[in-house]
Amino acid sequence: GGSLVCWAGAREGRGEIVAVDSWVNGVNAIPNVEAGFRKNCEHFGIQARIITSNTWDARKLVGDRIVFCFVDADHMEGVAMDIHVYAPRIVPGGIIAFHDYYISKPIKVRSSVDEWARRARWPSAGKVGSIVAFRRPSA
Phi then psi for 92, rounded to 5 degrees? Predict the structure, then answer.
């Protein structure tokens, strides 16, 4: 939950914060992770609506107009599915950012993002650490 706490602090007062996570690693539940996440949110005063689900299955609960989307998916097929579900919902001028883009493990973050970026042609919104972001064009 460290990423959500940081992003939420940076955008405080700018609308609802929604966190979606299945709380599993592959097929195995991660003990106490959700409880720890909720405790961090409470400790830092983050008011987030928390949805326990795969991100692509939560699409009906998140809403159709997204200003900022931080994708920290399962690093395999989840990245492409999240792009498919959430990129079209980003409002003009809004941002979609991807975690672990620069990680050299055998994961599909970079290839999925690069494939989408070639098609979408959204301008870069910057790169920091292992994160890359894109801004939806205004027109």
Answer: -55, 130
Alpha-carbon gap, residue 16 to 127, rounded angstroms: 25
Can you count the helices (H) and strands (E) in the chain?
5, 8
> What are the structure tokens assigned to 122, written together?
């959204």
What distance in Å separates the CA atoms of residue 115 and residue 80, rounded to the nearest whole number?
A: 9
DSSP characters for 34-92?
HHHHHHHHHHTT--EEEEES-TGGGHHHH-S-EEEEEE---SSHHHHHHHHHHGGGEEE
Q: pLDDT, tens digit, for every residue of 18-30?
A: 888 887 765 566 6
**What's the predicted TM-score (pTM) here?**
0.84
Q: Are strands 28-29 and 24-25 parallel, antiparallel or unpaired?
A: antiparallel
Residue 19: strand, helix, or coil: strand
Report the first-to-last Cα separation within the chain, whole angstroms. Answer: 34
